């Protein structure tokens, strides 16, 4: 195995892991959280947003930002593999990374400073509505784009 093979392997693993985390969250966690009362939902999301900031998630989430463009650069030519990698890179950087950084994270940060234990019932309901609807919409978008990035990356390996 040479260095380029290792980079491809790492890109596939990290892109796939990120897509898998987002997909699993979309099809299970969001539904379960939606069933919670406002105060429970807010506390749960605050805790999830704290716990997700770990080396394992951050590595798998950030690695494709660097690896996919590098692989695209190495395949620069007028070939199918290049265009598939370009699509994978664009999908991940714009649809997964940028949506997360510019959309989900600011919502997470706003929710983090919300003092659920000091809020009235109405304030909790308002805070949840301001968070849950846009956060889930953005999450759905990044889930789809992370899937596309992973799929196009895998397809690029099949084109020779």
TrEMBL record:
InterPro entries: Anthrone_oxy
Superkingdom in the source lineage: Bacteria
Pfam family, one: Anthrone_oxy
Alphabetic keyword roster: Membrane, Transmembrane, Transmembrane helix
Regions that span the bilayer: 6-25, 51-71, 83-105, 141-159
Protein name: DUF1772 domain-containing protein
